[in-house]
Amino acid sequence: MTTLPPPAAELSADEARRIALRAQGFLGAPDRKAGVRGVLRRLGAVQLDTISVLARSHELIPYARLGAVGRRTVEEAYWTEGHSFEYWSHAACILPIEEWPHFAFRRRAYRSRPQWHHELSDGAYDTVIRQLRSQGPLTATELGGAKNGGPWWDWSEAKVAVERALMYGEVVCTERRGWKRVYDLAERAVPDGLLHDELDDAECLRRLVRLAGEALGVGTRSDIADYHRLRGEQFDAAVAGSGLVPVRVEGWEKPAWADPAALESVPRGRHRTTLLSPFDSLIWERPRTERIFGFTHRLEAYVPKAKRVHGYFAMPLLSGGRLLGRVDPARDGRTLVARQVSLDGPKAVAPMAQALREAAGWVGCDAVRVERVDPPELAAPLVADLT
């Protein structure tokens, strides 16, 4: 464990919460000029996921910060003109293209310690590379088929080969087309100045620790390491050179570090009222969410239906810098259906109604239907507020 110097500052729990909200783009006027690309660069990583209820998670992330930005605008901002690439960070994430050099440590690790459950016949890898070189960007289907016909993990040789090339950094995912990855050669997709900028592991880790600290504002060792899925010992080796400063936070049992720029001014400004994707980086790590907001949240999509408490894709409600409840949404034609709404009390009714109306309009719905509310006595006020 890292030996800590004296803390640069002592923060109240409320100050830490506000610093985190500002760092994540939820406190203060949104930077509409920078738009979706500005959100991506501020966060450093936007998680992808297959689940689509209101929209896919990578669409919900900028929506939560900017408001009802067009969904096509979101996709174009991510993928056109080579502004980003997809790689493994916190999970499968969209990353700013300028961070390509800083994932060299992970590409090297995959090359030196591959953990593959699929074998490849001789020449299969080279065949995929030749196809991409001669034909340009292709999906796995276009490369020869993604599956062998069995379960989802029963990949074809072409899919195994191109995914291996992706992990090694010889191939890049440059966009998602109908949710399928589109692969291209790194030599075409990554600018020369970034492609050949091979940093050593120590420099990569210092940069990623710094980026995570800036995106979180303030965090513990676990918070910051988890942001890009670094190991604790990698954080320990990098934090001293990262530029982050140690701080003490009221009520936090573990040491913390902060972005020094986040300590220069008191976080002020307008709070965003919105619904959050369960894959939003504000609430990625459950212990951090509980520590900062006193709010326990769990994605129940993978929980048996009979055991779900809040619903399949419950989205927390953020308002006034607090998490005040959650809703499990669905769509029925042009109606947004709030299948289950959980509210922390009467103060959450108006913000939930506002968030539901805004979300409905964003996805092209012109009505909201509420099915269940907990506690039940808040159902009537919520329905009244929605009409």
Task: Estimate the helix proportion, in percent.
Answer: 25-40%
Summarize model confidence as the mean pLDDT: 92
Gross geometry? globular
In total, the number of strands is: 15
Give the N-terminus to C-terminus distance in angstroms.
55 Å
Strand content: 15-25%
Can you tell me the residue ranges where pLDDT is under 50 for at least 5 consecutive residues?
none
Condensed summary:
With 387 residues, the protein is an alpha+beta fold. It is built from 16 helices and 15 strands.
Account of the protein in words:
The termini are far apart. The protein is an alpha+beta fold and 387 residues long. Helix 6 packs across helix 8 (157-168). The mean pLDDT is 92. Strand 13, helix 15 and strand 14 form a beta-alpha-beta unit. Helices cover 37% and strands 19% of the residues. The strands form 4 sheets. Strands 10, 11, 12, 13, 14 and 15 form a 6-stranded mixed β-sheet that branches.
